[in-house]
Amino acid sequence: MSLPQLSVHAPAKLNLFLHIVGRRTDGYHLLQSAFQLIDWCDDLQFTRTTDGVITLLNPQPSVPAEQDLVVRAARLLQQHTGCAYGAQIHLEKRLPLGGGVGGGSSDAAATLSALNQLWQTGLSVPQLQALGVQLGADVPFFLFGQNALVEGIGEQMQALMIPPRWYLVWVPPVHVPTATIFTAPDLVRNTPGITLSQVQFAYMTNKLIFGRNDLQAIAEKQFPEISAALATLRHIQPNGLVRMSGSGATIFAEFEHEEVAQAALQAMLRSGLPQRGYAVVRGR
Ligand SMILES: C[C@@](CO)(OP(=O)(O)O)[C@H](O)COP(=O)(O)OP(=O)(O)OC[C@H]1O[C@@H](n2ccc(N)nc2=O)[C@H](O)[C@@H]1O
Ligand SMILES: Nc1ncnc2c1ncn2[C@@H]1O[C@H](COP(=O)(O)OP(=O)(O)O)[C@@H](O)[C@H]1O
C-alpha cells in the first residue's frame, strides 16, 4: 500500500504598502500593511511516514536542512501535538530567499497546514497561527490565506478586497538584512494609523497607489541597486504603483493587463540591470 501524500503550493506575497505606526517596548515595530498574495509559488510534497523522522529530501544549498523553516515547522507541530508520525518532504524552491516576498514564511505555513491534515493532528487555524508566529512574523498571514490588512507585528489581520491586477516582480541582486533596516536611526516610525475602510475605499476606487513603504527610503539609501531598479521601473511604468515589497530587495509594478506587464519585463531585461529573479504574475 502506498504511503499517504499531499502536494501544496506556497504562494508569495507583496506588501502593497507598509506603514510603521509605532514601536513595542521590546524594540519590534508595529505595522499596518496590505498583504497581496500572488501566483508565484514554491511547491511542496509531503509523504507521511510511521518512523517519526522528519526528512527534507532536497535541502537548499544555502540553508542547512535543520535550519530550513519547512523542517522547523514540521518539528514544532510534531512536538506541540506529540504526534508519532514523521514526514518526507520535497521542496521545489522558486521564490527568492530573503527577498521580501515571504517565501520562507509561506513554506512554513504550508508545512503546518499540510502536516496538520496528513498527521490528523486536528489543530484549528488560530492554533496553527499561534505556533507559526514563533517561526516568522508573516506565517499567521499565510495560514489566513487571503489578501489582508495586517497589523501589530503580523499577528492581526482582516480580509481586504483588492481589484485583480498583474504584477511585474523584480529582485535586485542584493540581500537586505531586515534587522538593519528596522534599526536605522532615520527610519520613519510614526506614520498615522489608517482604518480598514479607508484602505478598502482606496482599492475599490482603483487607487492601488495608496500609502507607501516606510522601509523603502532606508533600503534605497543602503542599497543603490534597489534605487536604480526602482528608477528604471518607474520610467517604464510611469502610471500606477511601483514600490518595494517588505524589507526588500524585491520591487514590483502593478498592471491591468498581462501583455503590458510582459512588455515592461522585456524593457527591464533590455535595460541590462542585474537581478536575481523576476516574474510576471497575477494577484490572487
Ligand atoms: C516587515 C516584513 C513584512 O512582511 O518584512 P519581510 O520579511 O517580508 O521583508 C516582515 O513582517 C518581517 O518579518 P520577519 O522577516 O519574520 O522578521 P524577523 O526575522 O522576525 O525580524 C528581523 C528583525 O527585524 C526587526 N523587526 C522585524 C519585524 C517587525 N515588525 N519589527 C522589527 O523591528 C527586529 O529587529 C527583528 O529582530
Ligand atoms: N524554506 C525556506 N525558504 C526561504 N528561506 C528560508 C527557508 N528556511 C529558512 N530560511 C531562511 O529564512 C530567511 C528569510 O526567508 P524569506 O521568507 O525567503 O525572506 P523574506 O521574509 O525576506 O521574504 C532566508 O534568508 C533563509 O536564511
TrEMBL record:
Catalytic activity field: 4-CDP-2-C-methyl-D-erythritol + ATP = 4-CDP-2-C-methyl-D-erythritol 2-phosphate + ADP + H(+)
Keywords, ordered alphabetically: ATP-binding, Isoprene biosynthesis, Kinase, Nucleotide-binding, Transferase
UniProt source species: Parvibium lacunae
HAMAP family, per database record: IspE
Binding annotation for ATP: 96-106
Family the entry assigns: Belongs to the GHMP kinase family. IspE subfamily.
SUPFAM superfamilies: GHMP Kinase, C-terminal domain, Ribosomal protein S5 domain 2-like
Pathway entry: Isoprenoid biosynthesis; isopentenyl diphosphate biosynthesis via DXP pathway; isopentenyl diphosphate from 1-deoxy-D-xylulose 5-phosphate: step 3/6
Catalytic residues in the record: 13, 138
The protein's Enzyme Commission number: 2.7.1.148
InterPro entries: GHMP_kinase_C_dom (IPR013750), GHMP_kinase_C_sf (IPR036554), GHMP_kinase_N_dom (IPR006204), IspE (IPR004424), Ribosomal_Su5_D2-typ_SF (IPR020568), Ribsml_uS5_D2-typ_fold_subgr (IPR014721)
Glycoprotein found in the keyword field: no
Name of this chain's protein: 4-diphosphocytidyl-2-C-methyl-D-erythritol kinase
Keyword Manganese part of the UniProt annotation: no
GO MF term (any one): 4-(cytidine 5'-diphospho)-2-C-methyl-D-erythritol kinase activity
Top-level taxon of origin: Bacteria
Domain GHMP kinase C-terminal: 211-270
Gene: ispE
GO biological process: isopentenyl diphosphate biosynthetic process, methylerythritol 4-phosphate pathway; terpenoid biosynthetic process
Residue ranges of domain GHMP kinase N-terminal in the record: 69-146
Physiological role: Catalyzes the phosphorylation of the position 2 hydroxy group of 4-diphosphocytidyl-2C-methyl-D-erythritol.
